Amino acid sequence: QKEVEQNSGPLSVPEGAIASLNCTYSDRVSQSFFWYRQYSGKSPELIMSIYSNGDKEDGRFTAQLNKASQYVSLLIRDSQPSDSATYLCAVLIRYALNFGKGTSLLVTP
Amino acid sequence: GAGVSQSPSNKVTEKGKDVELRCDPISGHTALYWYRQRLGQGLEFLIYFQGNSAPDKSGLPSDRFSAERTGESVSTLTIQRTQQEDSAVYLCASSSRLAVSSGANVLTFGAGSRLTVL
């Protein structure tokens, strides 16, 4: 079993809609979770980090964590075409971030 | 420096040749990571340095891969006798000691070195 799993997509949403990206992880002791955004041909950049169960909001982004279900998600409200990118879920396991394969998001005008 | 700097940005080599990829982390960042990203794939962890010590090298794909770091600065990833399956973008990232110890582990990535093995 992969340590961090994501649906590869592509996930297509119309402009202005809510995009919902999901991630599951296998290591029960993990405490730190991250969402990175990667535009084509570019390096990943951090969007959100979350450490506690529940929701964490930052602008149009909300990260949700459920440690009991080993599940973390990212909601993007009022999606914009500029949000079109690959979103990588990352889980801190021991000392290194383990990344999922990423979900490709396409926001259509 | 202001960010993580990697060189070369692009490298095309022939199968069987050795290559060296360089990473300059953010000044003061004690933790340094190498990842590999094949086309259309996620990031594959290769190795982690804390200072110039590498506690875990188990992510290195084979004994053709090696990495070293000078103090808390430059790191070099060396691939010997390159194979076509080594073609990928090699990403370096760094993090401060505070971020790592607190579990925040916020990584800042370089732009990557794209390696193509013909």
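qc> The mean pLDDT of chain A is 92.
qc> done
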